[in-house]
Design brief:
With about 500 residues, the chain is α+β, with helices and mostly antiparallel strands. The chain is built from 18 helices and 22 strands. The strands form six sheets. A seven-stranded antiparallel sheet has the order 15-12-14-13-18-20-16, sandwiched between helices. The chain has a five-stranded antiparallel sheet with strand order 5-6-10-8-9. A four-stranded mixed sheet has the order 1-2-4-3, with helices on one face. It has four domains: about 90 residues, 2-Layer Sandwich (Uridine Diphospho-n-acetylenolpyruvylglucosamine Reductase, domain 2), CATH 3.30.43.10; about 120 residues, 2-Layer Sandwich (Uridine Diphospho-n-acetylenolpyruvylglucosamine Reductase, domain 3); about 190 residues, FAD-linked oxidases, C-terminal domain (Vanillyl-alcohol Oxidase, Chain A, domain 3, 3-Layer(aba) Sandwich); about 50 residues, no CATH class. The chain starts with a helix and ends in an 8-residue tail after the last strand. Strand 8 and strand 9 form a beta hairpin. The protein is globular, with a radius of gyration of 23 Å. Helix 9 packs antiparallel against helix 14.
């Protein structure tokens, strides 16, 4: 997007105005202070924002957005900055609004099994807050120790247990949001379903393009009575993928089902010592929960399926400590791979489970063609792939090659009937690939939704859509003499 030079020239004025709306030390404009906000976890893209504003409550978020809307200033919402798609990448002519100070759990309601939290509360903190009563929050991204619930809503995050318990969208019941005009709205609540349009579903995964979340009502669940995990090793990724397809095809839905290839398994074992076998090409981690007899029977069924797929290793956890150690290796896989490669590019695409063996084979072929190693760590149960392309940014051309390799993986996901993203979002990373999945009519319709909430394109512009269009080009709602067409239709 072209820089707004007029806004750039008003940088000092904008910072001064923001200091009248929120605490003076909550507005950052010096180069050193802006440095932490120049990138999210997709560090290949970097851009310091014009100014950073750190509001402390909903009223201050509203005041900041109202000012930016009235003065034509772009806004980038930011949680913990753990996004892997550049969704929180700053704008040189925009204000980054960080939500880190909205970090309180407002209410724990065990009777209705909900927690109300501000967006800066970390994912894991919700489970910790209700653990003493035997409850937890199910979605568990690998970054759950750092990522925030507001960011989880923006990206519709998942995690290792999303196979059985669903993504963020399946585990939230209500939102408080601030629109670009400063208007505060509430969607849903502590009840199961709200009437009318599913605006809650629309906002979940909207990547900060429609509003800023200031409060989230989440569903909490009682911890299952029995939980056990299995490690299953195979001589090839194709055999591991076949086992996944057969388990799901048999009607078995584990609590979690993850796969790691030889490279990632050994890196994690060196890093965390989880007890993984080192001589397997693919390792499945399968978790079962529920009544003890059901768990035992399901483990036996899965072991038989794995043996039918040529498993060369099988073991089960005999204690909760051992089960958690199995998962510790998986959750540490990304930092572990950072210890064997200067840089890596983490992809995020989703495919039909039955195509796993084919896709694993084709990714290996692409790895040979590009001459770059790839480590596969992914949510096998729901087909959400996370290939990590290993490269060295200090070698000329390797970043470009890694990005081209990644583009081919994502196009492959779409080709086999999948989608560009499972939980990391589109951001800037996949923005220019949207045409591989959607035609122009699809993109225009999505843009009309954006225009309904943000007609000036001030909220997180330059993300998701490969080409912004003026709302007038897409057809505004026409009002004649105070009347819209078809007034009997419900509107929002």
């Amino acid at each position: 997007m072209p820089l707004d030079t007029e806004v750039l020239g008003r940088r000092g004025e904008i910072a001064t105005a923001l200091r009248r709306l929120i605490a003076a030390d909550s507005v950052i404009e010096d180069a050193v202070g802006l440095k932490p906000y120049e990138t999210d976890a997709l560090t290949a893209y970097q851009q310091p924002p014009l100014v950073v504003a750190l509001p402390s409550n909903t009223a201050e978020v509203s005041a900041v957005l109202s000012y930016c809307h009235a003065n034509g200033v772009k806004v980038v919402p930011r949680g913990a900055g753990t996004s892997l798609s550049g969704g929180a990448l700053g704008l040189a002519d925009g204000v980054t609004v960080g939500l880190s100070k909205l970090n309180r759990i407002l209410k724990i309601d065990y009777e209705n099994r909900v927690v109300v939290a501000q967006p800066g509360v970390t994912n894991l903190a919700i489970s910790h807050a209700v653990a003493e009563r035997g409850f937890y929050y199910a979605p568990d991204p690998s970054s759950q120790i750092a990522c925030t619930i507001g960011g989880n809503v923006a990206e519709n995050s998942g995690g290792v247990h999303c196979l059985k318990y669903g993504m963020t969208t399946n585990n939230i019941l209500g939102l408080e949001m601030v629109l670009i005009t400063g208007e505060v709205i509430r969607l849903g609540g502590a009840h199961l379903d709200a009437g009318g349009y599913d605006l809650l579903g629309l906002m979940t995964g909207s990547e900060g393009l429609l509003g800023i979340v200031t409060e989230v009502t989440v569903r909490i669940l009682p911890k299952p009575s029995h939980v056990r995990a299995m490690l299953l090793g195979f001589s090839s990724c194709e055999a591991g993928g076949e086992c996944v397809a057969r388990v799901i095809g048999a009607g078995i839905i584990p609590a979690g089902m993850e796969m790691m290839d030889h490279l990632s398994t050994n890196a994690s074992e060196d890093f965390i010592h989880a007890g993984y076998p080192r001589d397997v090409e693919a390792l499945l981690i399968v978790e079962l929960d529920g009544p003890e007899s059901e768990v035992a029977e399901t483990i036996a069924r899965i072991r038989a399926i794995a043996e039918g797929c040529g498993a060369i290793y099988a073991s089960e956890s005999n204690s909760d400590e051992e089960r958690l150690r199995f998962w510790a290796g998986r959750k540490a896989a990304f930092p572990a791979l950072g210890s064997i490669s200067p840089d890596y590019y983490c992809m995020d695409g989703t495919i039909p489970r039955r195509r796993l063996p084919e896709v694993m084979k084709r990714i290996a072929e692409l790895s040979d063609r590009y001459g770059l190693r790839v480590a596969n760590v992914f949510h096998a149960g729901d087909g959400n792939l996370h290939p990590l392309i290993l490269y060295d940014a200090n070698r000329p051309g390797e970043l470009d090659m890694a990005e081209a390799f990644g583009d081919e993986i994502l196009k492959l996901c779409v080709e086999v009937g999948g989608v560009l993203t499972g939980e990391h979002g589109v951001g800037v990373e996949k923005r220019d690939l949207m045409g591989a999945m959607f035609n122009q009519a699809d993109l225009d319709q999505q843009m009309r939704v954006k225009c309904a909430f943000d007609p000036k394109h001030l909220l997180n512009p330059g993300k998701v859509f490969p080409e912004l269009k003026r709302c007038a080009e897409l057809g505004r709602v026409h009002v004649h003499r105070g009347q819209v067409r078809f007034p009997e239709l419900p509107r929002f």
